[in-house]
Please model this.
Amino acid sequence: MKRILISLMTMALVGALVGGGIYAYFSDVETSTGNIFTAGTLDLNLDGGNTDVLKFTVDDVKPGDSGGGTWTVANVGNIDGYLDLESISVSEAIGTTTDPEEADEPTSVDTTQLGNYLMVHLFVDTNDNGSWDALETDIFGTAATPVAINTIAASYALDLSLVATTGTNYITLTWSVATATDNRIQGDSVTLNITFELQQMAAE
Model:
């Protein structure tokens, strides 16, 4: 009995030593804490800011007049993006003429006519010189054949690539009033609204 007891005690001691040996192996612990995910930004600046831009206020327009203006569009965020003309709208208002309208209209009725004779050319002005050059992208009309402002589309998937932080380009609109126009446009007005959009993916 004594031998059995000694044997059991010996086995228990060996087991304790073996068990204790498991926790004696080398170990090392490192941590990974404070992992942060921050969304990037698409930030479109128009003419150097984030406020509404009034580009044209042209009064006393008459046949033969012309002009133009350029919007500077820049991606100042930290994600590359694509520029589109998200919405374009044209509205017209009837003016007061000093003489009767032309023979194609009853003298007692005045309708908006300026939009038919205000010709525009909208294009990507890559070198920002205010005029169209070879290889620049036409949006509406061409330098040789502008289009009536009231025929432009409601939007345009331009897909102009603007890289993050440094991506800048220019959109120019030139306009003219046909010399063939006469009294029918007197006093009429046209309002053009354009919404520029910078988005992560090109339009599909």
Notes: The two ends are 90 Å apart (CA to CA). Helices lie at 2-22, 114-117. Residues 44-199 form one domain.
